[in-house]
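Q: For a teaching session next week I want to show students how multiple molecules come together into a single three-dimensional assembly. I've collected the sequence lines for a complex. Could you give me the predicted structure tokens for the whole thing so I can convert them for display?
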Amino acid sequence: MSQKYTALKKGLCVSLLIGITYTGILTAAPKPNEETTQIDAQAQSESARNRRTLKTQSSREKSKQTRQVYVYSRSAPLMKSASIESEQVATLNRGDLVTIVGEKEDWFEVTVDEISGWVSYYFVSSEYPVERKAELSRDKINLKKQSRRRASAYSTAATARGLVEQDTTNKKVASDIKSVKKIEEKTLTDTEVKTFMKEGQLNQ
Amino acid sequence: MRWVLVLVVCIISSLPTPSWANDDLLKTEIKIGRNIASIIVGIYGLYPSEKVNHYVSLVGNSVAYLNGRTDIRYYFSVLNSDEINALACPGGYIFITKGLLKQLENEAQLAAILAHEISHVNRRHVLRALNIKPKDKSGSIFSRFLQSRHSTVSVAFSQTVSKGVSILLQSGLQHQDEYEADQGAIFYCSQVGYDPFEYIKVLNKIQNKQSGFSVTHPKMSNRVNKIQQSLQFYSPKNTKKLKGRYQKNV
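A: Of course. Below is the structure for the complete assembly, covering every listed component.
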């Protein structure tokens, strides 16, 4: 009996050690870098319960709880007061971590490097803006078969909901993954976009 | 013995989500969005003009370049429909109808409409509305969605996609999400250098017309009021409307 109990105690200690080590490794991670996914950053800043559902809280509620947010737009003006027409005191850059010290409607009062000011809620996120790692692997499934299955499931569910006019008529609703692939192939380069903005005298 | 097991289970369940699971979430978002987009394109078809699609893509990507998420690409296309509507699927697939393009007067108005949709993608509004439970008794739903070889999973995935289409075309998002996207649009447009007041003009213009927005969005007058409040004291400097460029390309 006592041997069994000792074995149990040993097992418990090992489990605890593994648990603590694993938790320590993951939670003691420094500021996220390029290899950390966007969701990783979110995971570090939220409770375990919140991580288990996508919809329990809006991003805004998360940001309020986190008290520290990242700038996710390429740049964001830091304003003197909580207003779009206020004087700009500094420019924040993508990935900057700012501490929230106050808030007013859609604005956060923040401090960064001893400078304080107001930044719009729409330029920040509780998630670190990681770079895109890789494209989603292309479907290796038979497109025709896939298309039939999706169309069938869609038609059934859509008919049940009385979705759109097209569903209740004889017009067949089918997915068009080939066209979506064509859309994906026509990606613009940053240079094209920057040239376009320059021609329109945008982002001055 | 039982309490030891309970304790071990507690420890394991409290561990943070590993990164591969989070990659699955992002990939699932893109896969769901891609499939919703394929059905939207299946219903309406793409507007065949390369020139118009390229121009819309340039305007949308200008807004997304400065204000978009960095973990996804944004795709902008024109739907071959006379309806007045614009749609954002999860993962960055954004559409505007030919009918809405006809209503617009300048590039700033087009940018505002696309900025509203970018805002939906940035905040993952549609994905949250889908309310996918990440896990069930059999493990991660995301990883099974990504493989989707089992017929039951395939049907569940198709139903999720159908629900996404239904949200975009019929039931709409929560009104709070729409107001949030409106506010995002004016900030994004200002950031790029477009005149944000053009957004109010375009909303006023389409509010009396039969459009997809009237079914899925809050009352237009409420939206306009909220935007006007935000821009109450704003006097834009050097913002652009780019009417000439719009008319040359559309």
